[in-house]
Amino acid sequence: MTLAELCVRRSVFAVMLVCFLVVLGVFSFRELGVDLFPRADPATVNINMRLPGASPEEMTTQVVLPLEEALSTIGGLDELTAQSTEGISRITAKFVLERDIESAAQDVREKVAGALRGLPPNILPPVIQKADPDADPVISVVVASERSLRETTEIADKEIKRLLETVDGVGDVSLTGGRERQIRVYADADKLNAYGLTIKQFESAIQNENVETPGGRIVRGESELGVRTLGRLSAVEQFGTIIVANVGGSPIRVSDLGRVEDSFAEPSSWNTLGGRQAVTLEPGNMRTRYYLATALMDAGKDDEARAELEKILQADPRSVDARVQLGFLYGRAKRYDDAVATLQEAVNLEPKRPELFLYLGTALQRANQYDRAANALREGLSVDDKNKDLHFQLGVVQEKQQRFDDAIRSFRRVLAIDSKHAESYNYIGYMYAERGTNLGEAIQLIQQALALEPENGYFIDSLGWAYYQQGRYPEALRELKRAVSLAKEDPVLYEHLGDAYLKNNLSSEAIEAWEKSLKTDPDGPTAPQVRTKIKETRESQTRAKGAPPKAEQK
Predict the structure, then answer these.
(1) Cα separation values, 218 from 191, 340, 360, Å
(2) Are 178 and 156 contacting, i.e. CB atoms less than 8 angstroms apart?
(3) Residue pLDDT, tens place only, 492-525
(4) Cα(308)–Cα(513) distance, rounded to whole angstroms?
(5) Residue-number span of the structural domain to which 50 is assigned
(6) Is residue 73 in a domain?
(7) Is residue 504 part of a domain?
(8) Residue 140 confidence class, pLDDT cut points 50, 70, 90
(9) Minimal CA–CA distance to 231: which of 217, 214, 218?
(10) What pLDDT sits at residue 55?
(11) What is the C-alpha to C-alpha distance for residues 442 and 414, in angstroms, rounded to an integer?
(12) Could you tell me the CA-to-CA distances from 24 to 29, 185, 506 in Å, in that order?
């Protein structure tokens, strides 16, 4: 019987079917999102690296190529371009249209953080920014006057810029073409040579004198006063009185070696209006301030980043992205309760974004609230059951709860979604090794992880521990030594290495490794048992030294 015949014979059924479709269409239409200008730009992330004094060739070989090698393994990467100039490199990672900008930026941060140990030691912290066309300036304000450009800059910066920043929806306001005040100190090379001084001594003297430092505190009765040294210079003339060195009992001042000038910074931009030099102000939207906060976070300036995010939330209390970044900052400062509360607010505002449940579950796990973490991650999976990151984090939480079978099932779901997820292979193998079961399969799984990431110190530690559990102590010691050399400052790795040393009858080396474990994390969860191992091993060494020879015992 066809649908047409059924509708003719059962007219009530036909009417109800049509009514159901109409009602479904009405409710769907009401929930349909509408955007006059929908965003159809691919996710793009910029990485800015600085190595002072390096040539473009050095930036390419020492900075760009290692980073490109690390970034090329990110899923969904469509195009990778790089530009290098003297001391500066800019790498642009463009992803496929389906890739979410937040997860793409997070993957880029993780890969860059992992590649930093292979870059030159004097490289500056990377600045990672998400490109957003909506953050481009929508208006330019050009200011010109009969006054000098320096005075015009002061007016534009102190008055006009601050007014623009108070406008609703405006984030950061960039200023170009201005001449900011700068105190210049010129040194005479002949005079420096005459006194036997170097330019470094000249520079250090100015830096050391022009500084304010805390001077402690004074307690007087029930009151407490803070003390600081007022060393900051307040007038241009004071720079000339700074003593650089003492030669023959006479102080040599800056004014004896050069001159001081109240001037402005070297111009890097130039604007004109009607034939006059001008200053241009370009207001960006609130996303600009958000990206500024993200860049400050990447540079390790957490206090400044937090201030920017709080300004965003004051202007836009429903900003979810600002809450997410603020939650990350709280987590980095180990303020886990604040992180959980902030991320819970983000989830309440947008309960259909699965990555928000991932961030909340991770924060709850770090706060040792494992049951709440598991519930949050399951809520995220109810929104997106194919999200491998949610399945993986749920497995991590279940492992913390000692629910190993459930954790293994979660990691296997990750592998069903992504067969090249190295951490899932490693986690399953490590849990088998920790429990002392399925050791052959454990070694195979960890080797699969190492085939994907051969230089991962934690994977090598898992392999060494599996060998240890099998009783293959020399191989375990070899792998654990390699793991410690790749992933330093981890107390668990040092503890495993100490156990392997002991099984190879190297008790002194075992104690040394355990002591490094305690030094790395003296209050960690395994610290008490590590102290017990050190005590028992030392007692065993003492008994062995004090015992009479075997022939005499007989």
Answers:
(1) 44, 38, 44
(2) yes
(3) 888 899 999 999 989 899 999 899 888 888 887 7
(4) 43
(5) 44-131
(6) yes
(7) no
(8) confident
(9) 214
(10) 87
(11) 17
(12) 9, 75, 73
Amino acid at 62: Q
Quote the number of domains for the chain: 1
Calculate the alpha carbon distances from 527 to 337, 468, 491, 495, 501 in Å. 25, 20, 9, 9, 18
Q: pLDDT digit string (tens) for 458-468? A: 899 999 999 99
Query: Which amino acid is present at 276?
Result: R
- Interstrand relation of 88-95 and 44-50 (parallel, antiparallel or unpaired): antiparallel
Q: What is the CATH number of the domain that holds 94?
A: 3.30.70.1430
Residue 434 included in any domain: no
54-65 residue pLDDT tens = 888 888 988 999
Distance CA 499, CA 510 (A): 6
Q: What is the C-alpha to C-alpha distance for residues 396 and 449, in angstroms, rounded to an integer?
A: 17
Length of the chain: 554
pLDDT surpasses 70 at 550 = no
Q: Are 326 and 317 in contact (CB under 8 A)?
A: no
Three-class SS of residue 70? Answer: helix
Supply the pTM of this predicted model. Answer: 0.55
Instruction: Please list the alpha-helical segments (H only) found in 216-335.
Output: 254-257, 286-298, 302-315, 320-332
Give which of 119, 146, 100, 108 is closest to 54, Cα–Cα: 119
In whole angstroms, what is the distance from residue 231 CA to residue 447 CA?
A: 59
Q: What is the pLDDT of residue 136?
A: 62
Q: What pLDDT, on a 0 to 100 scale, did the predictor assign at position 121?
A: 78
Of 275, 278, 313, 306, nearest in space to 292 by CA: 306
Q: Is residue 521 part of a domain?
A: no
